[in-house]
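User: Here's a chain of 279 residues. Predict its fold as C-alpha cells.
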Amino acid sequence: MKKFFIYSLSVLLLQGCMVAAKPYTPLLDGVGYLTTKDKPTDIPDTIKESLMTLTDEMIDHFILENKNVFVSAPSLVLALAMTAQGAKDNTLDQMMNSMKLSDLSMDVVNEGLRALQLSMIQKKGIEFHLTNSIWIRDTFKQRVLASFLEANKTYYAPMIASGDFNDPAMVDAINDWVSVATRKKIKTAIDEPIHPLTQMFLINTLYFKGDWLIPFDKANTVKDMFGAHSVDMMAIVENYLYTKQDSTQYIALPYKDSDVVMVIALRQDGKPTSMSQLV
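Assistant: Prediction complete.
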C-alpha cells in the first residue's frame, strides 16, 4: 500500500502579515485568517485547560534539548486541528488525544478554536496577527475531499492552494508566505527538495507585537550575568504586580492600551514553570 505523508507545521512568532505567490493556484477564496467582525463566543474551559496541559508537555519535551525555546500550544493545536478535518476513526482519536481534546466532539473543538482565533485577532491595543495556510501537491488535489476544504474554510479560513512540489519555486513560495507572515523573522519553514511522498503542508503562524505600558529606556540597558552568561538586561524602576510563591518569583508587565500582560516566572532552581502555576 502506498504511503502518503501530510505535514502539520506550527510556525511560531511574534509578528505577521501575508503575500501572494506565483507558482501555485488558489483553490478557495480564504485569505489566511478569519475576517468576520463577529464577537467571539466564550472559549470552552476544556479547550483552555487542554492548551495549558499541552504547553507543559511541550516545555517538558523541548527543555530536554538544554537550550532556549519558544513554544505556542495554540499554534500547534490550530495546525493539528486543520489536519484533523480529514481524519476519522482511530487516526482521529489519536489526533484528538495528542491535542488533549479527546473528550470533545470535532464540532465543539472547531467552534472553540474559532472563538480562540477571534479572541486573539480582535485584541485591542496590540498587533496579534494569525494566519493559516494549506499547500497541496497538484497531483494530489483531486483526492482531497471537498468536506475537508470547506470545514477548514469555515473554522480556520486558511489560504488554500495547490502547486508543483517538484518545482523549487514552490518551496520559495511557501517560505515567502511564512516570511511575510512573520515579518521576515522566520525565512525558512521548509527545505528543498520536498519529499516525494509529502502531499500537503498545513501551516499556522502567530505574530504578536505590543508596546509596553511603561516603556524601558534603552539608555538603562546594561550587561549583566544571567546564569553563566553575560547578556543585555533592560532596567527600570517602577511599580508592577509582583509576587513570590515558594521558590518562584512572578512579575506582570502590562502592554499599552490593552488587557494583555506578559507574566514572567523565575524559579530559583532555573527549571521551567508550568502553566498551572501561572494562572
